[in-house]
Amino acid sequence: MLAAGTCNLKGIIMNKKVLVLLTLVPILTGYLLNISILIPGLGTLLFYLIPCATLIFWFYLGNRYSRTNWNILQATVLGNCIGFISFLLYLWQFYFRNDENRSLFISGISQLFVSGISLFTAKFAQLFESQVNTITQTSYTTMQILGLLLMVIIFMIGYVFGKVKARGGNIVEVNSF
């Protein structure tokens, strides 16, 4: 029994509004990664730690979403809505606006959702370039797409893991007659 005035942390984490608010964490980790690169020594360490921590958190968040009454499609769309919006803003800024009309703020913000996991997407993005060791808009767009796909997949794995764990580890439920 909780005493009056104490906080039930599990109840707070399960609150749907808090879960939706936690979808902003990749934006924060992307910003932190971009800023930390400027710090000698520590920036290199954080360059490797932040992407791993972001994906672990995203798996955890998918697991937490599995405890709501949302199905996997609803949870995935809600959990990754910031990523989808970021990708649409990215496309708008880099493919439908010229350099003179592009907003630096919007174009910067639109890349933060997946920049926290760029360690995992950058090498694959270079495979889409026609020249070796070249980075063009194709690479950046590929990183956005691969990053969003990776976040969606990790989230869904966390969701499924949470559902399986809640059922007692049984992946398939067999109804007996």
Which regions are unreliable across 5 or more consecutive residues at pLDDT < 50? Answer: 1-7, 173-177
The number of strands is 0
| Tally of contiguous helical segments | 9
Rg over CA atoms, rounded to whole Å, is 19 Å
Number of domains: 1
Structural class given helices, strands, pairing? mainly alpha
- Rounded mean pLDDT is 86
Share in helix? 55-70%
**Biggest pleated-sheet summary:** none
Principal-axes shape call: globular
String of helices and strands: HHHHHHHHH
Measured between the Cα atoms of the first and last residue, the distance is 40 Å
Strand content of the residues, in percent?
under 5%
Name a few traits of the molecule.
9 helices, globular, disordered N terminus
Give a description of the structure.
This protein is mostly helical. The chain has one domain (15-166). The protein is built from 9 helices and no strands. It has helices at residues 9-14, 16-21, 25-36, 42-65, 72-79, 81-95, 104-115, 118-125, 137-166.
List the helices and strands and how they pair.
Layout: H1 9-14, H2 16-21, H3 25-36, H4 42-65, H5 72-79, H6 81-95, H7 104-115, H8 118-125, H9 137-166
Helix pairs in contact: 3-4, 3-7, 4-9, 5-9, 6-7, 6-9, 7-9, 8-9
